Amino acid sequence: MTIRVLLADDQALIRSGFRALIDSAPDLQVVGEASDGAQALALARSERADVVVMDIRMPEVDGIEATRRISAEDDLAGVRVLVLTTFELDEHVVDAVRAGASGFLGKGVEPQVLLDAIRTVAAGEALLSPQATRALISRYLRPAQAPIAAPASLAALTARERQIVALVAEGLSNDEIAGRLFLSPLTAKTHVNRAMMKLGARDRAQLVVMAYQSGLVRADPA
Fold first, then answer.
1. In 10 A of CB 46, how many CB atoms?
2. What strand order describes the sheet that includes 103-106?
3. Which residues partner with 35 through β-bridges?
4. 135-151 pLDDT, tens per residue?
5. How far apart are CA 74 and CA 34, in angstroms?
6. Which of 30, 87, 109, 167 is most exposed by smallest CB count within 10 Å?
7. Which domains does the chain have, with CATH numbers?
8. What does pTM read for this prediction?
């Protein structure tokens, strides 16, 4: 199955380079290019992209607002957004994840890392670098920051699901969670999926943010 990719970046040269790289992979295909967020939203609708590779800083409608609009449309529920930033710990990345982005990468990553990231996001996984995730959350969701009101559905989580959500928030993969808790990877994945469903999380990225914002887990002091 071919993964349909939409590129959103205001620099044509960057889009051209990404297109050549992505189209070189037999399982990936670029189906459109956008120079701003409004175009990205329109093309996501018309081209039925699976993944939008989204720059944050674009004129008019930026990448964060475009991500928010894509995430808000029921008809685009299957579209995943992979945010590219100049710096992996860009201060706007948390805003992008809150808006519905499924993952993020720095623009300086190796070509194969980008290709694998697109495949990972398309498969429903998120927050591609656990180390960067922990550093990002620790930097921008401070312990002193008062948690937002926990969603009522948080009470619906079982003790095991709360435990697993906390491990997801640490950046652990399903396999790592399984090893930590002596479960099968399939069981760990099932618990993660159930927690996402109960909390209304679009994907693991939003699950991480909910875990910190609700106070279920706390960031370490910076």
1. 11
2. 28-34, 3-8, 51-55, 80-85, 103-106
3. none
4. 555 555 554 444 444 55
5. 21
6. 87
7. 3-128 (3.40.50.2300), 152-213 (1.10.10.10)
8. 0.71
